[in-house]
Design brief:
101 residues; alpha+beta; 2 helices; 3 strands; flat
């Protein structure tokens, strides 16, 4: 489904910000639904869902990103997004915006 070389690059990108563990979960699922009314077939629906998730773990923190495309660029982008979730970027400052009388 996904080439080994692509998976190596994706896992490398996911660990780029210091993650200790990373994994890729990919799936393709087909479904069929038949709706009956008064013992007659009224509707038949088929579908296919596919995509991949990238999970990165560092200590007790986990980040996850998902894409419904399985091409190299989409998988790398999901890996970068998940890795960014564990980066040591500066945290936002919370400010009290209440007006004083």
């Amino acid at each position: 489904m996904i080439e080994e070389a692509v998976l190596r690059d994706v896992l490398g990108a996911a660990l780029a910000t210091g993650g200790e563990f990373s994994e890729v979960y990919a799936e393709t699922r087909r479904s069929t639904s038949v709706r009956l009314e008064d013992r007659k077939v009224e509707e038949v629906t088929t579908g296919r869902d596919r995509g991949a998730g990238v999970r990165v773990v560092r200590g007790s923190s986990t980040a996850y990103a998902y894409t419904n495309r399985l091409d190299r660029e989409a998988l790398l982008e999901a890996a970068r997004v998940a890795a960014a979730g564990l980066s040591d970027a500066p945290q936002a400052t919370v400010r009290d915006l209440t007006r004083e009388p």
